[in-house]
Write a structure and sequence with these properties.
This protein has 830 residues and is of the alpha/beta class. The protein has 24 helices and 53 strands.
Length: 830
């Protein structure tokens, strides 16, 4: 027997949130609505299906194909113009020469269709309408039948309560005989319920209503859509739920990964290749589509995620719906009835209040609190670049297509015939995206030096050594193991300037950049390892002899999969006795390591330092940019102390240096050291580029060829060598070296603040402190009798960062809290 699935309409109010996908493809429990219909037809012995299409019919046809996957033969017919429900079926009259069934492609039901067909044939009906009983019939077409025979005697289309004489309604499922076509004119708009059935009734044709038992929902709004999921998970509707039921009420698909500390309360459905991270809570009625990622400590309840959705850490969903490719960066909150359309990205700490809906492909900036639906706002965030480069979740925010386009846009900004250095860390995601970047660069006509797998400082060094005009390094985001970071460098190995960032963004978004001809594509050159050349520049013979004579004992923790070709050789050159303290199991070697992983190993390294009576503990991140030190007592050397020690080394042992550049956040004890050694301090903005510029301009740490400078704030190996040099020259332990610098206490606070309030609050703070000593290098630094406080508006997040320094920890905390309280008060006053 044949069935006709009507899948051609433009759908309902669900449609704008699905990025213009036809409603039959909207997923119910991780399967398109129409797929459940196909399984139902197969179950009840239907063999052939004709699907009528109009709106985005290609999407439906491409998804379901010829039907063999469902054990059915499927054919498709596309309406040239809408002809109504009966008019479109008239178009396929030649394919319907026997009893046939018509069913909507966007309703969910488990009716016994065989029983309905049997009833139809027993009654020898021309048409049978499948009916069901509902609590509220006002939204449906009410059908009144004779109690005994079930012959239809009256129709009421969406009646008022005063007209309701029955609770049986038309489900849009019909069993029909071919003779109905004699009542339908070809090419004329004609509807089953409004036109054909009243006409058959008037003509005296045998027209019957079959009251089906079971479940039926005409999913016309979001509340019904959510309810359908809950009904499927509790078994109220008998549908095939994909996946394996690993516990009562918990279904998981293929390749699902669930951390052992995650909490899952039935009923829950997880699609194929979902990943649920540590501390996540999935409460009742949670549905997650294929390839969904739920990061650490996020929680969901009565929420539905479609395919490829990403929930960043500490995110809360309560009764929310996320369409395909929704991306929440972390610490987000979505409340009951909130909906994200397809391709929506939410920045950190963005919030959606109850019933707020966001149309597809919008970008919601960090810290935004949406209290009403977002429909017409343009797509696009403030910028591509953050503080360190361009970052995003792999294969969601950062895809090969995006990276290739970035490569073409970056290459187009370089001079004709320019060369660009490209490198990545050892992880597969970075290397895959690097290939896409290389393709984009070559397509722009830019030549590429491919360094392969390389630590970031060596990539910076290679730019100058090879005479390249630009460079890009890809690595796993140090804050997010699911993310990738693209760092863009200029010809000096520094992060590109803000003006260059803006120019790159403009080219990327406008796509206004040239493409090379077939004859002018760039050339790819693979460059052998530059490690030896880089290390030779770090260590001159005098320094090597000095450090080797000190015979340092070092406990070290680093990522051997990325730094094994650098660090062991460096320590051997320097004559250090080394005790490795990194994880050696195979899984740990290939797992992305973040800054958090490094910090979690501090206690283990400290214990090893004390047990081995080592001179210091050394921790280096996988990119060799971040150095963390423990002294010979196993105590942590704070970042500001490391900055002060490096400054001490320059001021005392490099008298030819004109000045020491440090960021505005560095301790003011460095000025005391400068006065002692008759030097000078240059304060820079709190971003890497500003400090790099000053180091290069002052030629503070020149490379062996003197072409540029090593950059200690992003070169852990260079910083380590300078610290070892200081210890060797002073003949002191690291604990004793810490006593060489003035001791200060510091405090740090963060205050959430909406973007739109930042400017007003900074103005108020400036006006309130006009009578004090101020420094305006970056943010607002206010000097007090007890110390100083720096209020710095963050460029990426809706927060203020507050740094305070004083002689005691209590005074520093009091200064930081005073400004934190004042910022909160100013927000309330507004």
């Amino acid at each position: 027997m044949r069935a006709v699935i009507m899948a051609g309409g433009k759908g309902t109010r669900l449609r704008p949130l699905t990025c213009n996908k036809p409603k039959p493809l909207v997923p119910i429990v991780n399967r398109p609505i129409m797929e459940h219909i196909l399984y139902l037809l197969k179950k009840h012995r239907f063999e052939e299906v004709v699907v009528t299409l109009f709106y985005l019919g290609e999407a439906i046809e491409n998804y379901f194909g010829d039907g063999r996957e469902y054990g059915l033969k499927m054919h498709y017919v596309t309406e040239e113009k809408p002809l109504g429900t009966a008019g479109c079926v008239k178009n396929i009259e030649d394919q319907l020469d026997q009893t046939f069934l018509v069913i909507s492609g966007d309703a969910l039901t488990d009716f016994d269709l065989e029983a309905a067909v049997k009833f139809h044939k027993q009654k020898q009906a021309t048409a049978t309408i499948v009916l069901t009983k509902v609590n509220n019939p006002l939204e449906y077409g009410v059908v009144i039948t004779e109690p005994e025979s079930q012959r239809i005697k009256r129709f009421l289309e969406k009646p008022g309560w005063g007209e309701v004489f029955s609770d049986t309604v038309n489900t849009g499922i019909y069993i029909l005989e071919p003779r109905i076509f004699s009542y339908i004119q070809p090419g004329v708009v004609f509807d089953f319920s409004k036109d054909l059935f009243p006409l058959l009734l008037a003509k005296g044709e045998p027209l019957y209503g079959y009251v089906a038992s079971g479940y039926w929902s005409d999913i016309g709004n979001l509340d019904q859509y959510r309810e359908a999921h809950f009904d499927a998970l509790t078994g109220k509707v008998r549908v095939s739920i994909p996946g394996k039921e690993i516990k009562p009420g918990i279904w998981v698909g293929e390749g699902v990964e669930i951390d052992q500390t995650a909490v899952i309360k039935a009923p829950v459905l997880l699609g194929d290749y979902c990943r649920v991270k540590a501390g996540a809570h999935l409460d009742e009625y949670t549905v997650i589509g294929k390839y969904g990622i739920v990061q650490e400590d996020s929680s969901m309840k009565r929420s539905i995620l479609w395919d490829h959705c990403y929930l960043g850490p500490n995110t809360e969903l309560r009764g929310a719906l996320l369409c395909h490719h929704s991306h929440l960066k972390g610490r987000n909150k979505l409340f009951e009835g909130a909906v994200l359309g397809e391709g929506v990205s939410m920045g950190v700490k963005a919030v959606l209040k109850p019933q707020v809906k966001v149309w597809p492909n919008k970008t919601i900036d960090s810290g935004t609190i949406l209290t009403e639906s977002l429909i017409w706002a343009k797509k696009g965030s403030k910028s591509l670049f953050g503080n360190a480069g361009i970052s995003g979740t792999v294969n969601q925010e950062i895809t090969p297509e995006i990276v290739a386009k970035l490569g073409a846009a970056f290459g187009a900004g370089l001079k004709q015939g320019a060369r660009c250095v490209v490198s990545s860390d050892h992880l597969n995601a970075s290397r895959v995206l690097k290939r896409a970047l290389v393709a984009g660069l070559l397509a722009s006509g830019t030549g590429v030096y491919d360094l392969g797998t390389m630590a970031t400082p060596i990539a910076r060094y290679a730019l100058v050594a090879l005479g390249a005009q630009g460079g890009v390094h890809l690595r796993i985001d140090p804050q997010d193991p699911e993310g990738v970071l693209l760092e863009f460098f200029d010809s000096q190995g520094m992060n590109i300037a803000k003006s260059t960032e803006r120019a790159l963004e403009n080219r990327y978004f406008s796509e206004d950049f040239p493409r090379a001809t077939a004859q002018n594509m760039g050339e790819l050159t693979f460059v052998p390892q530059l490690v030896d050349s880089y290390l030779q520049g770090l260590i001159n013979p005098e320094l090597k002899k000095l450090i080797r004579e000190a015979a340092f004992k070092i406990v070290v923790n680093y990522d051997p999969s990325s730094l094994a070709v650098i660090l062991p050789g460096l320590f051997e050159e320097l004559g250090c006795e080394v005790f490795n303290c990194y994880e050696t199991d195979e899984l740990a070697l290939y797992r992305p390591k973040t800054l958090k992983d490094l910090l979690n190993s501090l206690n283990r390294v400290a214990e090893a330092v004390r047990a081995r009576q080592a001179d210091l503990g050394v921790l280096v991140d996988s990119s060799a940019e971040r150095l963390i030190l423990l002294d010979n007592r196993g105590e942590l050397v704070k970042d500001e102390e490391l900055t002060a020690l490096l400054s001490f080394q320059v001021l005392k042992y490099q008298p030819e240096a004109d000045a020491v550049p440090v960021q505005v956040t560095a301790p003011h004890s460095i000025e005391e050291l400068a006065r002692e050694f008759r030097g000078k301090v240059i304060r820079t903005k709190a971003n890497p580029r500003s400090l790099m510029e000053q180091i290069v301009q002052t030629r503070l740490f020149p490379t062996d060829a003197g072409q540029t400078s090593y950059l200690p704030q992003v070169d852990a190996l260079f910083s380590l060598i300078k610290i070892l040099e200081l210890l060797a020259r002073e003949a002191v332990s690291l604990a004793e070296a810490r006593q060489l610098i003035p001791r200060v206490e510091r405090s740090y606070q963060e205050v959430d603040c909406p973007w739109e309030a930042k400017g007003r609050i900074m103005r108020n703070l400036f006006e309130e402190n006009k009578g004090r000593e101020l420094e305006l290098t970056d943010g607002l630094k206010v000097f007090h009798d007890a110390g100083w406080t720096l209020v710095l508006p963050d460029a990426e997040e809706p927060v203020f960062r507050i740094y305070a320094e004083a002689n005691t920890a209590e005074e520093a905390d009091a200064l930081a809290r005073m400004y934190m309280d004042r910022i909160n008060q100013l927000q309330l006053e507004n």
